[in-house]
From TrEMBL:
One of its GO terms (molecular function) is DNA-binding transcription factor activity. Pfam families: TetR_N. InterPro entries: Homeodomain-like_sf, HTH-type_TetR-like_transc_reg, HTH_TetR. This is TetR/AcrR family transcriptional regulator. Residues 5-65 form the HTH tetR-type domain. Residues 28-47 bind DNA. It comes from the Bacteria. Keywords: DNA-binding, Transcription, Transcription regulation. It comes from Candidatus Fimadaptatus faecigallinarum. Coiled coil: none annotated.
Length: 226
């Protein structure tokens, strides 16, 4: 790897870590330069400003998530419903266990870090949507799914699932009563499943992306780390 490429990777990795931990709005280019022990002018050799740096960092994060999504799809049986569920499992904070989810909730899904979350979502949505479009199209050809718009429904499914992730994150971050949290989370999960299954005419109960027990465990881990 050339030194310039290595330095660029180092810069984006450090920016990602700082945006995660401190929030996009709270991090300045000077902060990033100081953490790398670089002169501030060197950062501007690689990007025009913080907004462009955030886009590049978010793009690299999205590439990593997309690679994970493709691996999960390839590991699935040929059933298109299972493949769609596997791909959509990368559209929210539930890619790992409850502790990993809690870390995501404290960083990328934090109420104080909405600008960074929006940047990450904007970078991931087109590529993950294209992957899901392909899965839906294959499912329609195999008569496992049905929609008159197979080239668009995967993208719509990604949008719905990202919205679900944001709504659940806001709920977990703002609600301290577990019974209330679970009641409201259950309603969100049921609505998402119903909408997703109707989009592609999947049989009722076949697309169960996130279980309520997982949300409960993630919320408990989040409270422990609060």
């Amino acid at each position: 790897m050339r030194k310039g490429d290595q330095s660029r990777r180092e810069l984006t990795a450090r920016a990602t870590a700082m945006f995660d931990e401190r929030g996009y709005e709270s991090v300045s280019m000077r902060d990033i330069a100081q953490s790398l022990n670089w002169p501030k002018s060197l950062i501007y050799y690689y990007c025009t400003g913080k907004a462009q740096l955030a886009q590049v960092a978010a793009h690299e994060c999205a590439e990593a998530v997309l690679s994970d999504a493709r691996a999960r799809v390839e590991a699935c049986p040929s059933d298109s419903r299972a493949q769609l569920e596997a791909a959509l499992s990368c559209a929210g904070f539930w890619r790992g266990d409850a502790l990993a989810a809690a870390r995501e909730l404290h960083t990328r899904y934090s109420p104080g870090n909405l600008a960074w979350r929006a940047c990450l979502r904007a970078q991931l949505a087109p590529a993950l949507g294209a992957l899901c479009n392909d899965i839906v199209a294959r499912g329609v050809q195999a008569y496992e799914l049905y929609t008159p718009f197979p080239g668009q429904m995967g993208q719509v499914a990604v949008g719905l699932t990202s919205d679900l992730a944001d709504a659940l994150a806001q709920l977990i971050c703002a609600t301290h009563d577990e019974a209330e949290l679970l009641e409201r989370a259950d309603a969100l999960l049921r609505a998402h499943r119903c909408a997703l299954e109707r989009l592609v005419e999947a049989p009722f109960g076949t697309l169960r992306l996130v279980e309520l027990e997982y949300v409960r465990d993630a919320a408990r881990a989040y409270e422990f780390k609060r």
